[in-house]
Amino acid sequence: MLVLAPASVQEMHDFVILGFELAFKYRNPVMILADGVIGQLMEKVELIDQRPRWTNEQVEAISGSWATTGKKSDRKKHVITSLEMDSDIMEANNLRLQAKYDQMKTEEIRYEAIACDDADYILVAFGSAARICQKTVQIARKKGIKVGLIRPITLFPFPEKIIAQYATQVKGFLSVEFNAGQMVNDIRLAVNGITKVEYFGRMGGIVPTPDEVEIALEQRFKKG
After folding, report:
1. What is the model's pLDDT at position 39?
2. Which of 84, 109, 130, 150 has the fewest CB atoms nearer than 10 Å to its CB?
3. Taking a C-beta distance cutoff of 8 angstroms, is the pair 174, 217 a contact?
4. pTM to 2 decimals?
5. What is the C-alpha separation between 19 and 41, in angstroms, rounded?
6. Per residue in 163-173, pLDDT tens?
7. Is 60 exceeded by the pLDDT of residue 176?
8. What does the pLDDT look like over 85-125, one tens digit per residue?
9. Nearest Cα to 126, choosing from 220, 30, 34?
10. Cα(138)–Cα(149) distance, rounded to whole angstroms?
């Protein structure tokens, strides 16, 4: 499914609307992967107009082929299932889904790249971890260490191409996560062995400071 990772209260608001639009577009679930820090923040938010964004005619036009409006004589019965006993039909259904996921990877990748063009090292972080890493970038650069940040906004589709692009230019990536390392392997797959990829994370609700992230970066790449 499409996964959106907000890093601010504004994005928490905006991604609800975006999530519904993407769900309509792809007829697919969309997850908003927030975290406890973002959930407890108090920030100014610009509210988007909540009035209906589509006319009734537009809704009917985009939902006419699948909405549960009752059996009509001019179409087949709608059957919502992921299982088909006929292998040929099941394979065709899987190919249809794979095509949809490929379309997502082409059209829906979202990310933010900060100070990456001249970076020797790049932090990769999403959600509130990315906000902490923005300060880490400033701290490291004041010490003469050229550090950048890639913030995946979509965790699926993952911005693997931009990471692969920078992999040829940097000495290493540090995945900064508030978990046991759920994203680091995605980064390693994108890097494909071109450069070093390390992990730094805290769990249980412990939020590291920007200085702690910078120290972790130095420790893991001290020979670089």
Report:
1. 87
2. 84
3. yes
4. 0.87
5. 21
6. 999 999 999 99
7. yes
8. 889 989 998 999 999 999 999 999 999 999 999 999 999 99
9. 34
10. 10
Distance, first Cα to last Cα, the chain: 37
Tokens of 93: 């259904």
Identify whether the C-beta of residue 199 lies closer than 8 Å to the C-beta of residue 179: no
| Strands of the 121-124 sheet, one edge to the other | 111-114, 147-152, 121-124, 172-177, 196-201
**How does residue 81 score in pLDDT terms, banded at 50, 70 and 90?**
confident
User: What whole-number distance in Å separates Cα of residue 190 and Cα of residue 161?
Assistant: 7
- The tokens describing 215, both together, are 């120290």
- The string of pLDDT tens digits covering residues 184-198 is 999 999 999 999 999
Report the relative pairing of strands 111-114 and 121-124 from DSSP bridges.
unpaired
Q: Which structure tokens are listed for 80?
A: 């919502």
DSSP characters over the chain = -EEE---SHHHHHHHHHHHHHHHHHHTS-EEE---HHHHH------PPP-S-SS-HHHHHHHHTTT------TTSPPP---S--SSHHHHHHHHHHHHHHHHHHHHH---EEEES-TT-SEEEE--THHHHHHHHHHHHHHHTT--EEEEEESEEES--HHHHHHHHTT-SEEEEEESSSSSSHHHHHHHHTTSSEEEEEE--TT----HHHHHHHHHHHTTT-
Which of these, 114, 113, 139, lies nearest to 217 by C-alpha position? Answer: 139
What are φ and ψ of residue 66, in 5° steps?
Answer: -140, -15
What amino acid is encoded at 76 in this protein? K
Q: Phi and psi at residue 23, in whole multiples of 5°?
A: -65, -40
